What does this fold into?
Amino acid sequence: MSVAWNYDMAAAPRGETVKVSRAVGKNMAEYETHKPTIVIAAGTGGEFVTITQWLPKAGRWEFFSKNHPPICWQPFPNHPEAAL
It folds into this structure.
């Protein structure tokens, strides 16, 4: 089964901000962190396809630069036994 490439990079899921609690000494601290969504992306030139995630602090996709962003994306598949 083939999934069509989506050329609308603005529609690619970038993840979400989640609240996380962790122990800091004897206290619990709550903070927000970025939980990325993994996608498959293709670069220009027809040779580069990789998994990637949005890097919010850098404002770009992992393995790509701001000057050379991916041209299209598709969802990363789930493992077939993940729903079991």
